[in-house]
Amino acid sequence: MFGLIGIIAILGIAALLLFFNLPDANAFNARVERLFVENDDLTSAAEIKLLEILAQSGTAFSDVLASYRVVIFVLLVFSAALLVAALGLLVTLVMLNRRVGEIERAGLQVTSLIVSRAERSVYLNDMEFKLTEAAIETLAVLAEARMDGDVMTGAALEAMIQGRDESDCEEAAGATRVKRLRDSLGNQMVAEMLVRTIARRGYVLSVDPAAIRMI
């Protein structure tokens, strides 16, 4: 609000200064009229013709000045509109950045997470994601671990999916599965906040266990 008031005040002052400093549109006509009044001895045809030409020049000059005033007014209005639009976009960007920062600090608020292995789909709040078979298996294992309160390492994740011993699986294989799951979810911010990485411990869903359902 203060920014808008400042822009309008600055442009208003600039407009007043410009219009007051522009010469009077009738100044030239007034000088020609003064010549007519003060020089009664100008009676020859050539002299009268000269005065008529001066009068016509004064009229053209006043028309040009009037058009300049209109152009200046239009430019000032256009400048005001651009400045207001720029300020509005700036405020919008600041608000969006603050909102994104709040979301990043608070994490993704998930009220419902439904994993359907049969349909290879996951329903996140009101959003539906179609996943590959590998991605849905990864998400299902992470969801079950979350309901049990466990944190899955990459090796444990790979072992659970492959049905093998954890010692026979590599950490990188599980990390690759998590990366592919995040890629399948599409939105990087949503994926990073949904599947969190805990340093030196593993992976976990940042979802309330009570909000998870497996069908």
Concise structural overview:
With 215 residues, the chain is α+β, with helices and mostly antiparallel strands.
**Total of domains:** 2
CA gyration radius, whole angstroms: 38 Å
Whole-Å distance between the termini? 52 Å
Could you give the order of strands across the largest sheet? 3-2-1-6
Principal-axis shape equals rod-shaped
Quaternary state, please? single chain
Tell me the total number of β-strands.
6
Helix count from the secondary structure assignment: 7
Report helical residue fraction: 55-70%
Judged by helices, strands and strand pairing, the structural class is alpha+beta
Unreliable sequence segments = none
Strand fraction equals 5-15%
**N to C succession of SSEs:** HHHEEEHHHHEEE
Largest sheet: 4 strands, mixed
Chain-averaged pLDDT:
78
Describe the structure.
With 215 residues, the protein is an alpha+beta fold. The protein folds into 2 domains: 2-106; 113-214, Arc Repressor Mutant, subunit A, CATH 1.10.10. The chain has 7 helices and 6 strands; from the N terminus they run αααβββααααβββ. The chain has helices at residues 2-21, 27-38, 45-106, 133-147, 154-162, 171-185, 188-194, and strands at residues 113-116, 121-124, 127-130, 195-198, 202-205, 212-214. The strands form 2 sheets. It has a 4-stranded mixed sheet with strand order 3-2-1-6, covered by helices on one side. A two-stranded antiparallel ribbon has the order 4-5. A hairpin with a 4-residue loop joins strand 1 (113-116) and strand 2 (121-124). The longest helix has 62 residues, at 45-106. The radius of gyration is 38 Å and the shape is rod-shaped.
